[in-house]
Amino acid sequence: MKYLMRGPSIDWGVILLKPGESMGKNAHGHNIIDETFYFVEGNGIMIIDNKEFEAPEGSVFLCEPKEMHNIRNDSDKPVKIVFIKSQYHPEDKI
Predict the structure, then answer these.
(1) 18 φ/ψ angles, rounded to the nearest 5 degrees
(2) What does the alpha-carbon distance between residue 49 and residue 45 come to, in Å, rounded to a whole number?
(3) How are strands ordered across the β-sheet holding 10-17?
(4) Smallest Cα–Cα separation from 37: which of 8, 66, 7, 57?
(5) How far apart are CA 24 and CA 20, in angstroms?
(6) Tens-binned pLDDT, residue by residue, of the chain (94 aa)
(7) Structural domain boundaries in the chain
(8) What superfamily would CATH give domain 2-86?
């Protein structure tokens, strides 16, 4: 994960997952901010509150506050995702 902008009003950046990788070891969430994920390249699996969704290239997912989320790459090609966190609260992680 690489942040391209941190504040003053939003955080955003890029996630690159190689085949077999996940965004994190465990799902995470936020208490007060939402987070949007745009699948720029490749096909992944979006996991929200333990439910798995196909995430083909071009798809967009919005994770509301308190929704636990993760992304997994089960494909044989890299997956590139842009993420945007509303408001700037870098300490807001559960």
Answers:
(1) -75, 160
(2) 13
(3) 2-6, 10-17, 79-86, 35-41, 60-63
(4) 57
(5) 12
(6) 899 999 888 999 999 999 999 999 999 999 999 999 999 999 999 999 999 999 999 999 999 999 999 999 999 999 999 999 988 888 888 8
(7) 2-86
(8) Jelly Rolls (2.60.120.10)
pTM to 2 decimal places: 0.93
* The pairing of beta strand 10-17 with beta strand 79-86: antiparallel
Q: Which two tokens stand for residue 82?
A: 């842009």
Q: Which residues contact 54 (CB under 8 A, 6 or more apart)?
A: 43, 45, 46
Cα dihedral across residues 43, 46, 50, 51: positive or negative? negative
